[in-house]
Amino acid sequence: MRALAEDDVTRARQDRLLGILARDGSWATAATLADALGVTPRSIRSYVTAVNARVVPGGSAIESGPQGYRAGAEAGAALRAGAGGESGTPRDRLHRVVRSLLDAPDGVDVHETAERLHVSTATVDADLARVRALLGGTELTLERSADRARLRGTEMAQRRLLSRLAHDEMDAGSFDLGALRRTLGEGSVGAQAFGPFKTDLVAELGALGYFVNEIGISDVVMHIAIAADRVARDRGLEGGASAERPAQSEVGEIIARLAVRHLGVELGPGDRQHLATLVLTRVVAPGAGDPVDDARARLEPDVEKAVREVVERAAGQFLVDIAHEDFILRLALHVQNLLHRSREQAWSRNPLTRSLKSTYPMIFEVAVYIASGLNESLGIPLLDDEIAYIAMHVGGRLERSRQADQLLTATIVCPGYYELHELLRSSVDRSLGQAIEVTGVETRVDPDWGSIDTDLVLTTIDPAVAGDRIVRIQPFLTESDVERVQAAAGRIRRARRLARLRTELERYFDPHAFVHGLEPGEDAAIRRLGSLLVARGVIDDDYVERALQREQLSSTAFTEALAVPHAMGMTATRTEIAIGIADPSIPWGEGRVQVVALVAFSETDREAFQTVFEQFVEVFSERESVQRIVRRATDFAGFLDELVAVIDG
């Protein structure tokens, strides 16, 4: 059994290696990848060989070169190959055993199962032990009597187990037809649910005036596929409740009609009502034209009250502009659906969770705060995928309320000739209006370059001075011009953000709050760094405990190298950051990190929270920067020197 576990760990590390390279799309050294996975560079080389063996001879899932490794053209095929199929991997065999148990109400014979899988009886016994571990929290039990094994539990609980297997076949929340077939079996009627069924379902829901959440629709179609497969095996749900809302009946009729048309399966009342509830609570939202009063009429008063209170607290705590009526009502409708899903343990996966967390840590942190408040008031469990949906609501609100002063100003230098300068300004406004604001146009052939004080200068003539803010463009704007201006604007924004970060960080670091060499374990790292700040009178022991509690809500590993543990309340006597360097990397949440920054914020530095938090994460999202800092930061002076050097570029 130990060997099987080691095989699973090795395969999981190979998949994670491939996933890291596929997401980044750039070169990475063996040493860098070894740090990310917590193995040796030699292991990385063996993993690369194994991953490339998954694809056809001559194919390349991972390319090798002088700069290290990067994802090749067949990386996606290798990920799918690693996810299962009939490869005989321990995970695949485990899933096949579970499928056999689910398909056999009277149980399976251990010896016959071993013969069918071409393994020993002892191996199947070990797999059954792993099945028992897999059943935690599913309301299912595994019974063993002599040579027979049987699953006991409700049909709904068995479907949840199938859903868990399907998600286990996926990578980072993505969904594909192959994963569904591996879960339900190649002959499954449910595997046909993708394609025409989904297209017609989305079209009919749209015709009813609903917005359809495409991020979650595949997850719901997976449940429809599971239901169709179980009904085809005479394992339908019991009849639905007598009190059915009009919307449930309407959506249920659509699903039933499409199931007959595309799948040849007739769903009973229980399945129609269950699947309609899933659709209504997971993937649809009211149309944009719905009046506020209509939206409120669909809300339970307790839900609206809880959402309103926690949103108003979050707006004050983080100084974010989210306390708007439309935002509160839409989020409340989402939370009400979430509450219904939680009662059925019907969680929604979100394939954007990881990218939202690493790219928008501040928005994700606001979402964690809101989710924590909802947990306290409504008892909704906290899952990262569900928190990510709240983060999408928050991000959408903040994007809509972003102020115009975030635009960069620009001056166009274009010597006057007929209306040429007017045409150019019109082209710039049309192509770049969301990134820059033209505040002046110079039509002289010899402008006073020194007096132009806008963020950018877009000139059709050679400038008398040089600078990063000056961009040479053509009189008739080209696509290349647009790209160069956008790139220059991006560099200026980043430089300003990092300059602000450098100023803030130099205030908040202290050589007495630095550790090189952290022991594994989130609790141990947080307590060690916390003790340094407690000794300096920055925080008390209660802050450390609350930082530990925050870690339990959602991992603060915002990138694959950096964790930023903190308490949600800003109760420090002053803002300070304790830094811990882990070399090699240490486990943290579901990944590994090399830098831990325990942040203590004070009430007086509330506005600095966003700058420090988000931009600090940005610095450590670049693998090369992390490696440079970690390798050379053997003491505090070295850490600060390298951090400043990275920030300054």
UniProtKB/TrEMBL annotation:
It comes from Microbacterium lemovicicum. Keywords: Repeat. Pfam families: PRD (PF00874), PTS_EIIA_2 (PF00359). The gene is licR. InterPro entries: BglG_antiterminators, PRD, PRD_sf, PTrfase/Anion_transptr, PTS_EIIA_type-2_dom, WH-like_DNA-bd_sf. It comes from the Bacteria. This is Putative licABCH operon regulator. The keyword tRNA-binding does not apply. Residues 298-404 form the PRD domain. One of its GO terms (biological process) is regulation of DNA-templated transcription. The keyword Repeat applies. Residues 506-649 form the PTS EIIA type-2 domain. Signal peptide: none annotated.
